[in-house]
Amino acid sequence: xxxxxxxxxxxxxxxxxxxxxxxxxxxxxxxxxxxxxxxxxxxxxxxxxxxxxxxxxxxxxxxxxxxxxxxxxxxxxxxxxxxxxxxxxxxxxxxxxxxxxxxxxxxxxxxxxxxxxxxxxxxxxxxxxxxxxxxxxxxxxxxxxxxxxxxxxxxxxxxxxxxxxxxxxxxxxxxxxxxxxxxxxxxxxxxxxxxxxxxxxxxxxxxxxxxxxxxxxxxxxxxxxxxxxxxxxxxxxxxxxxxxxxxx
Length: 248
Description:
The chain has 248 residues and is an alpha/beta fold. It contains 9 helices and 6 strands.
């Protein structure tokens, strides 16, 4: 069930109690010298659409929100963003449209690291007025953490930024958008945590080229295997979420 492809009558007949509404959110921002600005949008949309195809009778898929909270990339250019406080409100308003229409299960499926804080805060804001609904959020890589790590050679075993994982996924999904002549080792990036303390630096301060990790180790074969494992894991988890009871 794809929200934007359904008419009002069809949507009216969708179960408000049992249906899991999935809102994919991403970003359009610089991804180093080798990757398209739409990387997060492309990957998150592909994952969400594949999961919906696996669960067509119980998942209602919204269009991917391509705009993200990307202010920390602005100094690299090639970035479109919303201010963090505006982005939180935007997510609230999209979810309020659904909650006001009676839907009771919403999952924000994220594909951009900068969206994590805003999406969690937006659900906190909503939960005050909708305490008996099931409001959820996750990044696809947090759901499929082990599956992604199993495919990576570099020391970074998760999704970074224009890294081995993302580059492999785009090589699989949209290979014509990867400039392989620019693939190199970007392992000189600075971490944003020190002794358990979060260091608030932007990507211009953290990276030498606007990318992280080892995209030079990426391949379409890794991307295909990783994508399949991600979709299978996210599908499995969504089946569990559909059965969660509503909060008292």
